[in-house]
Specification:
Elements: H1 2-10, H2 18-33, H3 39-57, H4 61-67, H5 73-78, H6 83-86, H7 88-112, H8 117-120, H9 141-156, H10 162-185, H11 191-214, H12 227-248, H13 251-275
Helix pairs in contact: 2-11, 3-10, 4-10, 7-9, 7-11, 9-10, 9-11, 10-11, 12-13
Length: 276
């Protein structure tokens, strides 16, 4: 699997950036044509769609509350910690891509400063989880994170056969769409927030992969003698998730904890066997 992932990562070319750039241009063109570049117009343009989506999705509050947690990098990556052993190149890409996505989030949210639904809309809608009332709605950080990580997985594990490639791409896109739609379901973001967030996430994944191709910044994570560093990080992550369980007690946290503990056991065992 390591060799397959490594080969797939090397296949990414600059031409892959055309799609996300064109999509961003299309969104900007749509907003410009709709005269919705100002905060109030931007919100008004999609208010009805947001209220409809929120009403339809919020009838599954437990599902929404659990799935939306996968927009937290700690939770989503906990399910992927086993790749640290079987496909470490993925983790090199994750690190680079998430650093890029964090930069996008830090720049874009204060730059646009669009009020969240609970801070602007007078209409009643369902809020699941904490009530978010800041002016940092655009783009959705959860959506950026989801598509950053899924984008890396998409290319790292891309099949060779055309039909399998199509099915794999559809699966990742549908999975991503389900996860980011929960941000509307919990009443935290407008539709365009999550759409643009997903595009920036995909863009972050591509940039992260290209950086991984060009610079060997994290190749040392594959060295068994350095596993104690990651054993410590996994342990700290375990403690953080336990606190989340004590605070919110969501089922998704138990699954993330279970995955993390399995990975911690595996890398600890490998380290001990190699050392002794």
């Amino acid at each position: 699997m390591k060799s397959t992932v490594n080969k797939n990562i090397l296949k990414i070319r600059l031409s892959y950036f055309f799609l996300p750039v064109l999509l961003l241009m299309a969104v900007f063109g749509f907003l410009f044509y709709s005269r919705a570049l100002l905060h109030s117009e931007y919100i008004e343009l999609q208010k009805e769609l947001f209220l409809y989506g929120n009403a339809e999705l919020s009838v599954y509050p437990v599902l929404m509350d659990n799935l939306t947690q996968l927009g937290d990098a700690l939770i989503l990556l906990s399910f992927l910690t086993i790749l640290f052993v079987i496909a470490p190149k993925c983790w090199e890409c994750f690190i680079n891509a998430l650093l890029i996505s964090a930069l996008f989030t830090a720049i874009l949210k204060p730059l646009f400063a669009i009020p969240r639904p609970a801070a602007f809309l007078q209409e009643k809608f369902t809020i699941i989880g904490p009530k978010l009332v800041g002016s940092n709605s655009f783009p959705s950080g959860h959506s950026i994170t989801v598509f950053t990580i899924l984008g890396v997985i998409l290319f790292a594990f891309m099949p060779q056969r055309i039909i399998l490639k199509i099915l794999w791409c559809l699966f990742i896109c549908v999975l991503g769409a389900i996860l980011i739609s929960t941000r509307i379901g919990v009443g935290a973001h407008y539709p365009l927030d999550v759409l643009v967030g997903s595009i920036f996430g995909y863009l972050s994944a591509l940039i992260g992969i290209v950086v991984t191709q060009k610079f060997n910044l994290w190749t040392w994570i594959d060295k068994v003698k350095l596993y104690p560093i990651f054993m410590l990080l996994f342990t700290v992550s375990t403690v953080i998730i336990i606190f989340k369980i004590l605070d919110t007690n969501l089922f998704i946290f138990y699954l993330a904890l279970f995955s993390l503990l399995i990975s911690l056991f595996v890398i600890t065992r490998i380290y001990v066997q190699k050392k002794y």
